[in-house]
Amino acid sequence: MDQYTLNLLIVGASFALYIGIAIWSRAGSTAEFYAANRGVNPVMNGMATAADWMSAASFISMAGLIAGVGYINSTYLMGWTGGYVLLALLLAPYLRKFGKYTVPQFIGDRFYSQTARLVAVVCLIIISITYVIGQMTGAGVAFSRFLEVEGSTGLWIASAVVFVYAVLGGMKGITYTQVAQYVVLIIAYSIPAIFISMQLTGNPLPWLGLFSTHTESGLPLLQKLDQVVTDLGFNAYTAQGSMLNMTLFTLSLMIGTAGLPHVIIRFFTVPKVADARWSAGWALVFIALLYLTAPAVGAMARLNIINTIFPGGPQAEAVLYDDRPDWMRNWEVTGLLKFEDKNGDGRIQYYNDAAAGFAETAASRGWSGNELTINNDILVLANPEIAQLPGWVIGLIAAGGLAAALSTAAGLLLAISSAISHDLIKDWLKPGISEAGELMTARVAMAGAILVATLLGLNPPGFAAQTVALAFGLAAASIFPALMMGIFSKRINAAGATIGMLVGLTVTCLYLFTYLGWFFIPGTNMLENVAANYLFGIPPTAFGPIGALLNFGAAYVISAMTEAPPRHVQELVDSVRVPRGAGAATSH
């Protein structure tokens, strides 16, 4: 059986499973659509949360970013994992005890203001749309290679699949679909990693293989990798970068994680407050299975690529372009891997042509510039082909990549539709709407969100993980401070919270748009996205904590200058934080 047919069978079977689950668990009420009727087991919810969380950025792009840069990009791992600890300890149980369906609903009630709620809805939509662009980007990458279609066609196929199971099932259908997607993606990620770790180190556990001995050279794997990348003018794989930017970026991902609306609403689906903590704990366990493996996948992929191009080592001749392996030919078709023979010798020169210290060495070897461009988003998907693994493994990783992208996209789209139908329509514009009307509105809103996300995903502002990192910065600057102050400060009032969110969101958006274009439209940026133009050297992806500080500062200053919240609101804050009655969470 040829590879294309095998890919179709495996991916098609996974899609049939997701759609079948959606039909089986179709939401029949708003309680089922928004919160799965609050009846999800904590272990199941933890698995669904992990799938919701481990998006295309985690599955497809994160290991690629680590492979391309090395230790510096381990900030993605540290920030995303640390953020879940913050979420479990500081937000999840309190928000569940409050007993509402959506994040804007909590903000509106806690700050006794429809204006605050409306601002929260705007923040949520901007964050979620930015995030879902990254998912659509990842889905397009996976489809373009494994189903041999254009990236834009892949986006529309992914949109159609998400539309069916998300619009039909709501939170109830999405939850059980995400459980299935987690099983698919973790198996798909682990099996190639185990094979490759065995090939390179003899150790079947990738996270241990990363620190094991490279079988062929007898050197520790990371030492061998440092050696080959520095021989080609790249920075050492284990080198550290700017501690300020690493700290800010890690913090942005951490507090952004704790403020992501589509993750928070998952904790509204469990029966009790205690279950919210257990769900977060189980989610961390399920996430760790992939996150422990990702650094090994990145390092081993980088080494395999260099060995492919320089089969005799970096000091020897590079491979002839006409003799390039099949995996390179396959990915060239997608446009995500490109070759340009700059010196006309017919060989693939791959090195860091931006390194001034390597220019003399390159010139002595007759090299006229780097000739191979590899999109970071392809490394995980190409890994089985690079390592010449069996065809069924290649098909499996295609299904896993798509599962990761689609699971998170569904969660984001549900957050958007809930905010529009529940927070805008039912509780503000049309309070008398029937339950059937509200359910229909939610489905129409989700369909509209899918369309907008797909159109924006055709021209993303960066790799999948980079695009997702922007959404984390927006969540860190807008939603997270409002939630923290709403839970832990009785003094913050409606004016303070509203202005704080507006300041954090506006400043962060302006900073992002300055370098990445207005609303991420290519060519509309005011400054070139290079380090020399950054304010204090802070890149757009690390600006979230600055926006958060401005949010906190504005909220406290305005609240100090205006009247304290009403007594019943202060008592509400106490009732949410105090453990009394925690076993019986408030119903909607």
TrEMBL record:
Pfam families: SSF. One of its GO terms (molecular function) is transmembrane transporter activity. It is found in: Membrane. This is Cation acetate symporter. GO terms for cellular component: plasma membrane. The chain crosses the membrane at residues 6-25, 46-71, 77-95, 116-133, 153-170, 182-200, 248-268, 280-301, 392-420, 440-458, 464-487, 499-521, 541-558. Keywords: Membrane, Transmembrane, Transmembrane helix, Transport. It comes from the Bacteria. It is a multi-pass membrane protein. Belongs to the sodium:solute symporter (SSF) (TC 2.A.21) family. NCBIfam families: Na_symport_lg. Its main location: membrane.
